[in-house]
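fyi for ur records
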Amino acid sequence: MIVVIYQFERWLIAGDAKLVNKIEGINLCIKGVEEESSAAALYLAELFFQGDLVIKNDTFAFEYYKLANPKRNPLAAFRLGQFYDWGLVVKPDEDKALFWFEMAASQGYSEAYLRCAEIYWNRYQYVTDDRARLLVKTYLWISAAEIVSNDQDNGVLSKDKLEDIDNLHYAVTKEIPTSWQTALDKQVAQHFHKLKDSYLSSDG
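which gave:
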């Protein structure tokens, strides 16, 4: 199925995607989904979500993201978070949005770090219970976002997002006790070490 998707993308890049090839490619991806290919499900989900090549259809996209093994695919998890965050197709549900954003962030999806931190920070601002945990979670995710934003090879985040990261990181660092930061920074470092080990083992 990966070969099919690769060939399909080559047609598109080369400008060779005649209508018959487009239809054939989409049909092959649909067949792949029926055969439980998470790669095919993700590819179709992105097509319908972005509205490229096919008419944009958020309902189809949502269903295909759910079939794309989101607990092991960070992009699919992030997109499901966006659906619940924005109220696309489903009713807005911040708890479900946070669940999927954290699922994506735990797999190293850079765009998810900031959104996780924002949700925890907003909760920290407006609740009276459990504030220490909310502050810690905010610090962990915004620290991860700050590390990614300082990566010179990272071209995923927009200028506005980078500014949002800097501003939130500054606010949280002022709020959290200095005595907590060393231990929390170690947790963030462990997160990235775990991701690196995972990438290395998958390459092997």
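Residues 178-203 form the longest helix (26 residues). thats all i got for now
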